[in-house]
Amino acid sequence: MSSPWEEFGYEICDVGINGRDGLNKIRLHRPDLVMLDIRMPGLSGIDIVSQLKKENFTTKFIILTAYSSFSYAKRLMGLGIEHYLLKPVVETELIQVLNKIEQERLEEQKFQEQLAFYNQLNEERTLRALLEGMQDHLSESLLTKLEDKELQLVRICGNVHQHNDQWLIERVAEHTEQIKLIRKDDFNHLLFIQKGPAFIKQFLAKINRSFLENNGQKIILMVADPINHIEELPDAYKQIKELMDVHFCFSEERNFSLSAYNSRDERG
């Protein structure tokens, strides 16, 4: 039988010579799909699936068996395996199974995308509430991420062009655990988590340069002082709003902070 793997986006990465060799090769390659015989020397197909489930593998399995008894089907269903074929395998039946697996994959992908979108919205909503001092709205998972971390809040001021806005989203996504994008009061804010001054300075310089090169946009970055506790975030946000009231006196500054303001004030 000529198997239609390529038609469904698969390629054969390896073949196991027995059950134990197959298990080791699955661990090595971590494939998307595995076809297993239910009876093999060393380990059975059921043994392999059971072990991989314990190791949290998300691989899809097709079990091949010469047995059509209900007891085997029941054991497979108990492991969450719905796809099995009786030997000898008929190509049309294999194609039907592959179509079902592809549909499952698409549905799982859609669910994960929806879940990620929901989590992002929920996280941003939580962060906005935290900036306002509403700590009761803070989720436990986010609390763990931010607890005992050095934080620094930055506001991007200027009419951000759509292209630059997308560029910013993509750059933040590259550092999703260290930078959070918060939209509040018609401004984009960046919350840096456990990032040193050198990284933050470089990242902000990249924003300034990219915005200017792409659409000739000049922006001003309001930089709050670093803080060490999430309870201080409302103070950092208040500091940024205070900087907004005085930055027009220092229009040549692209990155404006309280320390820069105090320095100018002392010299003045």
UniProtKB/TrEMBL annotation:
Transmembrane segments: none
PROSITE patterns per UniProt: RESPONSE_REGULATORY (PS50110)
InterPro entries the UniProt entry points to: CheY-like_superfamily (IPR011006), Sig_transdc_resp-reg_receiver (IPR001789), ST_Response_Regulator (IPR052048)
Domain of life: Bacteria
PANTHER family registered for this protein in UniProt: TWO-COMPONENT RESPONSE REGULATOR, TWO-COMPONENT RESPONSE REGULATOR ARR22
Pfam families named in the record: Response_reg (PF00072)
Keywords: Phosphoprotein
Domain Response regulatory residues, every copy: 1-102
Name recorded for this polypeptide: Response regulatory domain-containing protein
